[in-house]
Specification:
alpha+beta, 11 helices, 6 strands, FdhE-like fold
Amino acid sequence: MDVEVIIKKLKEEKPYLKSPLELYEKVLTFNKNCKKILEKETQNSLLNKIIDEFSGLFEIPYEFASFLKSSIINSGKDPFKEPRSILELPVSEEEVSREEISRALFILSKPFFARYRETLKEKKKFEETGKCGVCGAHVSLTMIDEENRRHMVCTVCGHKEEIFRIGCSYCMQKVCEKIDLLVDEDEIRVELCKDCKTYIKSFKDEVYQKYKDPYLIDIISMPLDVVAQERGYIRRSPNIIGIKEIV
């Protein structure tokens, strides 16, 4: 069963998640189409093609799409070499909220981060910085493989890397007694660090085999985000659709 079929089934089973699941469907389509663009188009046309794809799929007004293009060009930064510059674009909040703007830019940045990840020759190790070795984002999502090894899954750039099995990936403490757990009916876990009040999601290989997509697993477990944040814990990086704070 492919991810699109799984999402369709989940929208029926979990109607309270219909909106984020529908947004993720668009994100999947956007990423898939942009992958084809990156493979076929010349360097000079990439930016225009990606912005056009973004504006068409997410129904972005022509004026705002044009503004995005000019802002990226006027920033003086190559978004394929500095994809984080997309997230830092100065956009007016007159018509939409800062949260909506940040989410839109986060989604738009995906193909730029994908190209950057693929072309980056030297990646830092997580153990060196406590962050993603490609984009420098904090870890919020991890998966445990069939051999009980833990891997970070970066929701910003898509980088995956093995990290330490027990402990907090934010403050780097590795004492299991300092970690509390929340677990849902799918056996998706939230690990709550008592030291720094950070939480990280974690799921085992059996869960991955059921849903086939770590980012989808992150979305369907959003009720765990709500509980963790209500208890005062912090998610340090957004999920795949750009949501970090829910409460």
